[in-house]
Amino acid sequence: MSDPEVSTDAAACYRHPDRPALTRCSRCERPICGDDLIEAPVGYQCPECAKGGQPVRRLRDLEVAQVTRVLVGALVVAFVATLGTARSPVAEVAWLTTIQVGHGEVWRLVTSGFVHSGVIHIGFNGYLLWLLGHQLEPRMGRARFITLYVGGLIGGSLGVIALSAMWVFTGLNEVPVIGSILTTHPLRPTVGASGAVFGLFGAAMVAYRQRGIDPWRTDIGSLVLLNLVITIAFSSFISVGGHLGGLAGGALIGAILLRDRDRSSLRLAIGAVVALTAVAIVLARITVTAL
Length: 291
Description:
Blueprint lengths: L22 E2 L6 E2 L5 E2 L4 E2 L1 H4 L15 H16 L7 H6 L3 H5 L5 H4 L7 H22 L1 H28 L8 H5 L11 H17 L8 H15 L6 H18 L5 H28 L1
Antiparallel strand pairs: 1-2, 3-4
């Protein structure tokens, strides 16, 4: 992942000064041209780093992704508190349904992202959060990363409520296959950090696009595509709205935060998160009223 805070518009490749840099090495962050970038597990690396050489490190590179680690720890604590099941008494207070949000239990828009339905569920989300967080947080800063994470989380909750509204206001729920994928019963509980994780995916893809790289031809794009296929294929067990909403929410907030580094972009992103929250609450209320 290239540094979303540093523009490479005027930078030259450190190996070929006569060539403009396309992106930055995800390890040493030196600018590299298209001929020198090598695809890595996450992002692109320069030839030296890809060969295992000692990369040039800055002070900021030594910072740990503290927010990411706290979030992963919070997921684990919540998992233990719910005894590892989404049907425990504690989980019932936290999970998300459109009906409950429509009746004023708005905290579920956030708490649902800390409840998981099993070891595989939390393991998968925790791993992706750890991986993406350690790439994004040191480069975005804590405040921006938290805003992005919450934006993806709220976007996922909004996606769930939006599909519940489709169940109420359209006849798609009666259409075989398509209805089962595109609609969600307003009483169906939704849990998991997938919306927030997909939000990180969305922001990462925006970062690639801003640097002229086709995100669908990167490892991040491949992971997103694979997860979307799995989401649709197992829509009876996986929240389609949560994943699509999180991806869209993360892309929106990421586009705002990655635009520049000044405080105005952070304030605008926070405002966008608040707006998404308000839309989710109002839509849930409208849906409940219509039942």
